[in-house]
Automatic annotation (TrEMBL), chain B:
<feature type="domain" description="Transcription factor zinc-finger">
    <location>
        <begin position="2"/>
        <end position="40"/>
    </location>
</feature>
<feature type="compositionally biased region" description="Pro residues">
    <location>
        <begin position="49"/>
        <end position="67"/>
    </location>
</feature>
<dbReference type="Pfam" id="PF13453">
    <property type="entry name" value="Zn_ribbon_TFIIB"/>
</dbReference>
<feature type="region of interest" description="Disordered">
    <location>
        <begin position="46"/>
        <end position="80"/>
    </location>
</feature>
<protein>
    <submittedName>
        <fullName>Zf-TFIIB domain-containing protein</fullName>
    </submittedName>
</protein>
<dbReference type="InterPro" id="IPR027392">
    <property type="entry name" value="TF_Znf"/>
</dbReference>
Length: 312, 95
């Protein structure tokens, strides 16, 4: 019997940890994530990640180089190039504690925004690949089409998607594409930098690249617009981003003319993912998921091209 | 909804938490019951002269809700407690 990927990756992580520290206490070992697109395991202070099947070696190496170059923004990898484990690429990282999903009050909104602003202000390294946010949204919509094409909740989601400009659907170059972006920011993408620094760092470079920086603000913006993120948390995030000189939105005034398109795209992506998951589990949508579908339905009444007018 | 004056389509916009319908044809604006008062109240908060010599550093006054897009959820500034915990637990941590 072939051992599972997680089991093989566990052994790889152990070898990497012991190479780094022969007297390893071997505590805190286990699987942190095991999804079709990524498996992440931990052995003491070392984390090994198996990237999605089909990940490009050259592009991933360039993304690792960016993380090594910006250690005050991104968690730097332990090794500069990916290892190979059968058909998967594996990278190694120091372990850092994640944000606690049980305590919304302590979520590091300001720290996250400051990190994103610093990332956006940093010139991309030569040959940095494109940020993959729009492509990721397109994949979520494709999965929805394949899983749940005819449901009543699918229709407003697909309509909102079709109303977006081609760049936001990953079908054309974005209007502004020279900025270094994370590409998939959410609260699961922050860890505490291991001591002695002990402040937050961004992780997961899979979608990192050059693109439109508003994409990185668009997920919190979408949560706020859908009524899922309280105004004070959104204000804390946006204010910290502006105070750090972040270039994605103007320093004052209404940020929505800049945020509108990517926030719509992220709302559609999140709604599509939620619908696909619910359909596969044969369960109804919960209240939070329904609020995303409702937002998609409201988008039909206010096409993107009218939004700038409404913001004046 | 349709504009009562020129029959063109009206679009909903959210201004500081107040839903406003604007006609895409004649640009006329339709307000629901109580919305004019809500806007007037917001306006007076902005234009009121500062009260005489406010005492040194104080907490933020109850600021109007930050700007939101026209397609945003209604009732911004409402209660978030229950939904907040639920969405925080899973939605805010995954792609």
């Amino acid at each position: 019997m072939t051992p599972t990927l997680a089991a093989q990756l566990t052994r790889t992580a152990e070898e990497a940890a012991h190479a780094h520290r022969p007297a390893c206490p071997c505590h805190d070992t286990g699987t942190l994530a095991d999804r079709p697109d990524a498996t992440v395991v931990r052995h003491a202070e070392t984390v090994a990640k198996a990237h999605p099947p089909g990940t490009d070696h050259t592009e991933l190496t360039l993304r690792l180089a960016t993380a090594s170059t910006l250690p005050d923004v991104l968690l730097p990898p332990l090794k500069a190039t990916p290892a190979e484990l059968h058909d998967r690429l594996v990278t190694f990282w120091p372990y850092g504690d994640p944000v606690d999903p049980r305590t919304p009050d302590t979520a590091p909104w300001a720290a996250a925004a400051t990190l994103l602003a610093r990332l956006h202000l940093h010139p991309p390294l030569p040959r940095t690949p494109p940020m993959r946010g729009p492509a990721k949204a397109a994949r979520a919509v494709e999965r929805l089409r394949a899983t749940e094409p005819g449901s009543t909740a699918t229709t407003p989601v697909l309509q909102a998607w079709q109303a977006l400009p081609a760049w936001a659907r990953g079908e054309a170059a974005p209007p502004e594409d020279g900025t270094l972006c994370h590409g998939d920011f959410h609260l699961g993408q922050l860890v505490r930098n291991p001591a002695p620094h002990d402040d937050w760092r961004l992780i997961d470079v899979d979608d990192l690249g050059t693109g439109t920086p508003t994409w990185d603000l668009a997920r919190p913006a979408a949560w706020y617009a859908c009524g899922l993120l309280p105004p004070e948390d959104w204000t804390r995030f946006l204010t910290a981003y502006r105070e750090a000189g972040g270039p994605a939105v103007p320093p004052h005034g209404d940020p929505w003319p800049a945020l509108d398109i990517p926030a719509r795209a992220l709302t559609v992506q999140t709604a599509a993912t939620a619908l696909t998951k619910a359909a596969r589990a044969a369960r109804p949508l919960d209240e939070v998921e329904q609020s995303l579908i409702d937002a998609c339905a409201r988008m039909a009444a206010t096409p993107p091209e009218l939004t700038c007018e409404s913001a004046t | 909804m349709q504009c009562p004056k020129c029959r063109a389509q009206m679009h909903t916009y959210n201004r500081n938490g107040v839903q406003i319908e604007q006609c895409s044809g004649c640009r006329g604006i339709f307000l629901d019951y109580g919305e004019l008062e809500a806007l007037t109240r917001l306006e007076s908060q902005w234009s009121q002269p500062a009260p005489p010599a406010p005492p040194a550093p104080q907490a933020y006054p109850a600021a109007p809700a930050p700007a939101a897009p026209a397609w945003g959820a209604p009732h911004h500034g409402g209660h978030y407690g229950h939904k907040r915990h639920k969405s925080f637990g899973h939605m805010l941590f995954s792609s």
